[in-house]
Amino acid sequence: MTATLLTPLMISLPIGVAALMAALGRRLPRRVLDVLATATAATVTALAVVLLVLTLTGSTRVIAWAGGWTPRQGVSIGIALVSDPISAGLAVLAAVLATAALVYSWRYFDAVDVYFHALVLVFLAAMCGFVLTGDLFDMFVWFELMSAVAYALTGYKIEEAQSVQGALNFGVTNSVGAFATLLGITLLYDRTGALNFAALGQNLAGHPPDPLVVASFVLLVTGFLTKAAVVPFHFWTADAEAVAPIPVCALFSGIMVELGIYAVARVYWTVYSDALPVSAIRGPMMVLGVVSAVVGAVMCLAQRHIKRLLAFSTVSHIGLFLVGIALLTPAGFAGTAVYVIGQAGVKAALFLLVGVIALRLGSISERELHGRGTGMRFTAALTVIGGIALAGLPPFATGLGKAITEEAGLAAGYPWLIAVFVGASALTGAAVLRMAARVFFGLGTPAAEDPTSRFDDDESETEVDGEEPTGRVPHTMLIPPAVLLAAALGVGLQPGLTAALGQVAAGFFDRATYAAQVLGLPTPPHAAATVEVSGFTAEGIGYGLLSVGLALLVAASAVFGARLPGWITTTARAALPPLRVLRGLHSGHVGDYVTWLVVGVVALAGAVGRILL
Amino acid sequence: MNLLPYLVAGWLFLVGLYGVVSSRNLIHTVVSLSVVQSSTYVLLLTVGFRSGGTAPVFADIPSGTVVVDPLVQALALTDVVVGATVSALLLGLAIQVHKRTGTLDPDDLRSLSG
User: Could you give the CA distance from residue A439 to residue A367 in angstroms, rounded to a whole number?
Assistant: First the structure.
């Protein structure tokens, strides 16, 4: 099999199997569906791993032109799938998480029917298409397929009022973002007459920025930032992940929102990197990232509904990823790549563990569950490990990625970013650890009635449709989270990872070589194409341990708040009114969410548009 | 270049957004979303328009004839398919919201707040 068959197969195989399952599935027994779907996802994983190895060892990209419409004399009218180590690596990540989610679903749902498996497979195919495509409109189509499937999966429990509301909020907000993206694509086509990333980049290169280029960039990234759950485009996230089935949440938080960040970086580096200078992009994107990191961490700590808690921790980490990308340096990009891998493993594992809690105890409210998980030793141990890994304990990949990105921030002249990284990862880790301390160990007093939330815990207790809480947790629900956590640790321990990433990041940033390889032109002579990326430094390990220490401290003071001296609780209470305002903004009202999206677009346009003055 | 179609596209986008933001009925929200989307149809077709161009069917026209850009028409068609899918899905969800809660007013659907 030639390499150019690999990428189309990664998309067509899961779609084909999904179509088959949707057509014949009702006649097949449940176990056959489980095995077929899992085997398909595992096959895609294997194909993606082969692709990753090929792109890492070979010096060129794997390029497949649909229908054999290859470019002639550097002009392309075909549609290409272009894979480099970043797109192949993200495809591996998506396929691994989809496999884990499908294995987990074997025993998680009793009443699941054929459409769940088919939807997960189409979702996987759309994610693969999204990361592998080399064409802007194609990217929009995969984006929309991914979105439509995601809405359906969010509202999968269609008999539950909250479930369909969450899906509707998700659908409307993301659709507005997607239409903005399409307008951006159209403006870009108007200017260049091209849709291929390489051709677009060639067309825009060498011209000073003008209003049309700025407008197209801002509109284009609006959809991606909405998908990425970047504040203020993020409001749909917590609603969707509070109601979506657990395996779906693991996919959303682990890979789908990260793909939004990927798209921003891909589009910038292949299309806009010559037209829009670093100075135009870095500031606005970093502000968005820092605001997301802070708002996400605060909202995360305030939650009592465990799935919403994890959803906001994703918002916070996405903010950190956006900061890493927005540094626009290879080191920042490399650090973010490791961080994304680590966060995917840890966050997906935590969601799956919450599903175990829900199945066993019939609730996902921290308040309700106080001390009720005392017998679940294995689940407890994994959750605590997950919380500490989320806070960035070296040598987990989360810790390594955080350390590299902090270092990159320092090198780019932003030493205060270290405080943002340490603070955000400490607070999100603390929220998980606090939840674990209360649920599994019954420590401290039960969480009080949440004074700043109108979110009704009690309405969303039946996480597992119609099932009674059971005594035994099946192995298929404990092995996937354990494997994912082990993988997050293993990636962090991988020797040679940082050296390889230096090269991968340099390749990702090299617009001219990308264009030459895609369009079949002679490759331009190389400047020093490899970048040194440090691994763990003493400072990196130190800040990692500091985050974990702070996380433990914050978790302990939340759990044992009643025993703290009076002046601390009085001071803490002063934070309640602003927190109440912040939580009030998360109103569950779709009109409010779209208003914030518009505010975000206008602010971003103003900030990026400064370059024109 | 005629500015009017660009203004129409911008107007449709904004007026559709106003509909989504101010809506008191989820069906109205979804239809407003379709209005937002129609701005993308208008813009796509505008971008591909060539003054004096004919339909890009090359079977019976001499080569060298000015034609409008066929690519954007294909894109618009894809866009219509996407829009139909999303609208159908969202309308289905809206019906289900009404079945479960008895209301379609987003102001009354606050159970996901905070």
Answer: 8
Cβ atoms of residues A543 and A421 within 8 Å: yes
The answer to whether A439 touches A557, Cβ cutoff 8 Å, is no
A474 or B84: which leads in pLDDT: B84
pLDDT in tens, A331-362: 999 999 999 999 999 999 999 999 999 888 88
Q: Cβ of B112 under 8 Å from any chain A Cβ?
A: yes
Give pLDDT, residue A466: 43
CA A329 – CA A332 distance, rounded (Å) = 5
Contact yes or no for A289/A218 (Cβ under 8 A): no
pTM of the model: 0.95
What is the C-alpha to C-alpha distance for residues A405 and A331, in angstroms, rounded to an integer?
7
Name residue A133's beta-bridge partners: A81
User: At CB < 8 A and 24+ separation, what contacts does A465-474 make?
Assistant: A465/A109, A465/A110, A465/A111, A465/A157, A465/A159, A466/A111, A467/A110, A467/A359, A468/A362, A469/A359, A469/A360, A469/A361, A469/A362, A470/A359, A470/A360, A471/A360, A473/A356, A473/A359, A473/A360, A473/A376, A473/A379, A474/A106, A474/A107
Q: Which residues of A touch B17 (CB under 8 A)?
A: 176, 594, 598
Q: How far apart are the first and last CA of chain B?
A: 49
pLDDT band for A462, please (50, 70, 90 cuts).
very low
What is the DSSP code (8-state) at residue A206?
Answer: T
The mean pLDDT value for A188-213 works out to 91
d(CA A52, CA A87): 8
Give the pair of three-digit tokens for residue A164.
């369909």
ipTM score of the complex? 0.95
3-state class of A65 per DSSP? strand
Q: Which residue has the tokens 């789908």?
A: A256
- Shortest alpha-carbon distance between residue B56 and chain A (Å): 16
Question: Which of B35, B49, B81, B112 should be substituted to probe chain A, the one whose Cβ sees the most A Cβ atoms within 10 Å?
Answer: B112
A503: enclosing H helix or E strand: helix A497-509
Among A292-296, A391-395, A483-487, A573-577, the least confident range: A573-577
| pLDDT the model gives residue A495 | 81
Question: Is residue A426 scored above 90 in pLDDT?
Answer: yes
Tracing tokens 């969010």 back to the chain, one arrives at A154
Q: Hey, what are A257's tokens?
A: 């929102």
Q: If pLDDT is split at 50, 70 and 90, which confidence band does A3 have?
A: confident
Q: What is the dihedral of CA A89, A94, A99, A101, to 10 degrees?
A: 140
Nearest Cα residue to A383 out of A368, A369, A401:
A369
Mutate to test the interface with B, among A233, A459, A594 (most CBs of B within 10 A): A594
Is the CB of residue A530 less than 8 Å from the CB of residue A507? Answer: no
* Distance in angstroms (rounded) separating the CA atoms of residues A573 and A575: 5
